[in-house]
Amino acid sequence: MQFIDLATQQTRIKEQIDANIQTVLAHGRYIMGPEIAELENRLAEYVNCRHAIGCASGTDALLMALLALDVGPGDAVFTSPFTFIATAEVIQLIGATPVFVDIDPTTFNIDPAKLEEAIAASKTHDTSLYPQPLNPKCIIPVDLFGLLADYERIEAIAKKYGLFVIEDAAQSFGAEYREKKACAFGHIAATSFFPAKPLGCYGDGGMCFTGDAKLAEALRSIRVHGKGSHKYDNARIGVNGRLDTLQAAVLLAKFNIFPEEVELRQMAAARYTELLSQCSTLTVPGIPEGYASVWAQYSILTNGRKRDDFQKALKEDNIPTAIYYPKPLHLQTAFKGLGYKSGDFPISEDASERIFSIPMHPYLTEEDQTKIVNVINTLC
Predict the structure, then answer these.
(1) DSSP state of 202
(2) Count of CA atoms in the C-beta half-sphere (13 A) of 192
(3) pLDDT-derived band of residue 127, with 50, 70 and 90 as boundaries?
(4) Which CATH architecture has domain 259-377?
(5) Are 192 and 57 in contact (CB under 8 A)?
(6) What's this model's pTM, rounded to 2 decimal places?
(7) How confident is the model over 244-289, as pLDDT tens digits?
(8) Higher-confidence residue: 124 or 102?
(9) What CATH topology corresponds to 6-101+109-255?
C-alpha cells in the first residue's frame, strides 16, 4: 500500500504528460518557456487572484515574498512552530527573526488569540511572550495539512497592528475558507508543487500569488536575480528562483484532473472520519464550519495509548505511516539562538508527541481504507 499513490495518477494522464513534455523538447525553451505563463494564468484564474508568479520551490516562494515586502534584519515575523522548517528558515535567511506562536489544538494552525498576545507583547517588549526587542513586520500563517488558517481574524489583527501577511499555502492549494480559495489571502501567498503535495510536479516547484501589481512586478524581478529593465542592470538583489518549463508542462497535465482529485480527497477523508469515529483512543481531524480542507495529510492524535503501538501494528500489515512533525521548530537546533525552551508552546509540543498520519491520496479505495481502520480499531 502507498502512503501517496502517484503511480495511479500518472497512469491516468500519462498520454497528456508525455505530449506536454515532447512539446517542450521540441521548442527547446527549457527556462521560462511558454508553459510557465500558461500555468500562471490558469492557476491565477482558479484562485481568483490577479497575479501568479511561478518559482523553483515552495521555499523560494516564501523567500521571494519576504524579499518583496522588504522584510529584513531587525524585523519580527510571527509564525507557527508546528510546521516544516522552510517557513521559519527563510525568515532567518534574510536576517529577520521568527517569533513563534502556539497553535489551535483542533486545526493545528496558528492561534489568532495567542498571535495578538504576542504582537501586543512586542509593543511593550514583554520577554515572557516576545523574547527579543524587534520591529513587528509580518505574519506567516501556515495552512497545515491542507486546512486554511483563520484569515478573517488574522487579517484583522494584521490591519490593527500594521503588519504584512504571507499565506504559507504549501499544503493547502485547492482548499477553501469562507468560499475563497487557498492562495487568495494575505498580501502574498506562497504554495509548493513538491511531488507529495495535492498538486505536485515531478521535482521541485512553487508559486506566489498576489493581487498587488507592484508586488507582482517585484516578485517577477526577484525570481530572476533581481532583473531590471536591462539584463545587466539588476534592480534589486534577488534569487535564481525560476520554475522549470518541464515542471510547468507536468503541472498543466495534472491540473486538468485536479478539481476531481480534490473531491476524491474529501470523500476519502470523510470515509476515514466516519470509520474512526468510535475509536476512543484517537482524535480525528476537526474541520470548522466554513472551511474545506484539501487533505494534504490525514493526521490523527492518540489518546492514552502510545503512538508507536499504532504505527507498529500498521507496519506489520504493510501500511505506511508518517509523523508530521515530531519536533516543533522552537526546540530544533537551528533555532536554539532564539532562546526558546521546552514548555513555551505546550499545544505544539503535545501535538508533536501524539500525532501520526495515515495514507491519504485521491485513489484510496474503500477496501484499503477499511483495512487501515480495521488495524487501528484493534487498539481502540
Answers:
(1) S
(2) 26
(3) low
(4) Alpha-Beta Complex (3.90)
(5) yes
(6) 0.96
(7) 999 999 999 999 999 999 999 999 999 999 999 888 899 999 999 9
(8) 102
(9) Aspartate Aminotransferase; domain 2 (3.40.640)
